[in-house]
Specification:
8 helices, 12 strands, 6-stranded antiparallel β-sheet, 251 residues, alpha+beta, two-stranded antiparallel sheet
Length: 251
């Protein structure tokens, strides 16, 4: 396995079929093939300089995600959003994929100001509730849709309050702005995923009935010492978002 440069960006040293699957997944979600149609196996082999086996493994991954279908004699067809239940299928397994998710969608967020860390979040993460965190509220939408795919409450640690107050709404992700403003580095992101019922506030923001099913993704952004710098609670309506994780089997 070796690092490969496709489209001007250096990809990590991962299996080549996974690199190809990730690249094609982004293009499908970005609507690159809406008019041209999905390329043939031969075209993909030539474009990316890979074997037919690698192409077929990558396409098998996209088929498992529900993004494409493959039929003998008719080639590869991109599944419309309606065939996927109208949900946004997005891999969020690492920081690079979280950034890609941010680029593929649009968020509007606003500074709320000083706020205590909610008891529910604190208990879930084994932290102390309260304190003087800087809170932001955000709403995320996907291209071509006016329906929100997530409502987010983000909390920046009180040690970064002065920097958090300088964050520009909608300019970039909060954690990337924190890195620039405070001269820090986010070393890891942990995610807790839970099925929950929409509260009154979440339901109103997402435009769904109260207590309808939601996917809660609780992210903690930490430095190299393991200290939490930011926490975000992201509520996704159950019919508009699908979480995808790709796991390599060793041995």
């Amino acid at each position: 396995v070796r690092a490969t440069s496709w489209g001007g960006s250096l990809l990590a040293a991962t299996p080549r079929y996974k690199e190809l699957a990730d690249a094609l997944r982004r293009e499908v979600l970005d609507g690159v093939y809406i008019e041209s149609g999905f390329p043939t196996e031969s075209a993909l082999c030539k474009r990316f300089g890979v074997s037919r086996f690698t192409v077929r493994e990558a396409l098998r991954s996209l088929t498992a995600d529900g993004l494409i279908t493959r039929k003998r004699g008719s080639g590869t067809v991109i599944q419309p959003a309606t065939a996927r239940g109208g949900a946004l299928h997005q891999p969020l397994s690492n920081v690079a994929e979280i950034m890609q998710y941010a680029r593929n969608t649009r968020t509007t967020f606003e500074l709320v100001g000083d706020a205590p860390l909610p008891r529910g979040i604190a208990q879930h993460l084994d932290l102390l509730a309260g304190g003087r965190w800087t809170m932001f509220k955000g709403l995320r939408t996907a291209p071509g849709s006016s329906e929100p795919i997530a409502v987010t409450d983000a909390y920046v640690h009180e040690s970064l309050r002065d920097h958090a107050m300088q964050i520009a709404p909608n300019e970039d992700t909060i954690f990337k702005q924190l890195e620039r403003l405070a001269g820090i580095k986010i070393a890891s992101v942990t995610q807790d995923i839970q099925a929950v019922a929409a509260t009154n506030d979440v339901a109103a923001a997402l435009g769904v009935p109260r207590r309808s099913p939601c996917l809660l993704i609780l992210r903690c952004y930490r430095n190299a010492a393991g200290e939490i710098l930011e926490i975000s609670a992201n509520h996704h309506p159950g019919d508009r978002f699908a979480y995808a994780m790709h796991i390599e089997v060793e041995g």
